[in-house]
Structures are given as C-alpha cells and as structure tokens.
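Figure 3 (text version): structure tokens given as input.
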C-alpha cells in the first residue's frame, strides 16, 4: 500500500530514490560448517568402517584358528598333536570369553562337553596329560568348537 503523502513527482522522494543502491546478490554459501546431513553421513561412514574392521578382525582370527587346526591334523607326533590342540582350543575359548583361558583342566573339559552338547567329555580333551596319549580324534569336534568360540 502506497503512502498518500509521497508522490512520484516529489523532489525529496526523487533524491532518495536516486541514492538507493541496487540489490547485491548474497555471497555463495561457504564450505564450512557443513550441513547436518553431511555430519550424519560422516558419522555413519566412520561407524561402518569401524564395524567392518571389527568384523574382519574377528573373521581373520577364526580363519587363523581353522588354518592352525588344519595344519595340526598333519602333525605326525600324536602327543605333540594333542598338546597343540589343547593350546589351540584354550586360545579359541579365550576369544569367546577370556575367563576360559584360566580354567582348570576338568572345568575346561566340562566346557568342551557342554559346547559340543554331549553327555560325556571326549577322550581327546585332556589326553595330553596322560602318559598313554594315543587317542583317536574326531576332527569335526574341534572344528565345531573353534567355529562356535571364534565367531
């Protein structure tokens, strides 16, 4: 709505209009600070990288344990094979829960029995402590233990 006291022929208005400067375009938006969507994208990207590295590390440990088990199957010395299998399974159990590494031999045998869902402890679990350490090993059982403990 126009002001009735001002007319376009008024010399005061004409000088005021002549002194007005043209509208200047605003400056282009700067790079910093980024919009919240960019912050969210960066946070999600970092979270995905951390989660991926964590999963890759866990799977790498599982692959290492399974490779060590495969190498252990070719061990010609039965006593050494049982001893190394026990160490490997202790380390795999420690990956699952660090407290398992310090368990006594009977407690560890019960953990193996419970994990395999068997009624009795497999003969090979603590056979390396006995002088007659020749025991046949069903290699599917240690493989199952490693797969369950090294997830």
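Below: residues designed for each position.
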């Amino acid at each position: 709505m126009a002001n009735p006291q001002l007319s376009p022929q008024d010399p005061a208005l004409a000088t005021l209009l002549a002194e007005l400067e043209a509208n200047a375009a605003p400056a282009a938006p700067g790079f910093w600070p980024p919009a919240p969507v960019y912050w969210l994208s960066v946070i999600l990207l970092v979270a995905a990288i951390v989660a991926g590295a964590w999963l890759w590390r866990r799977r790498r440990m599982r692959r290492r344990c399974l490779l060590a088990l495969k190498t252990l199957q070719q061990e010609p010395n039965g006593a050494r094979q049982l001893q190394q299998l026990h160490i490997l399974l202790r380390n795999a159990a420690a990956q699952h829960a660090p407290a398992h590494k310090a368990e006594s031999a009977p407690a560890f045998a019960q953990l193996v029995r419970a994990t395999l869902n068997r009624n009795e402890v497999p003969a090979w679990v603590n056979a390396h402590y006995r002088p007659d350490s020749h025991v046949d090993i069903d290699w599917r059982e240690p493989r199952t233990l490693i797969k369950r403990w090294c997830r």
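The two ends are 75 Å apart (CA to CA).
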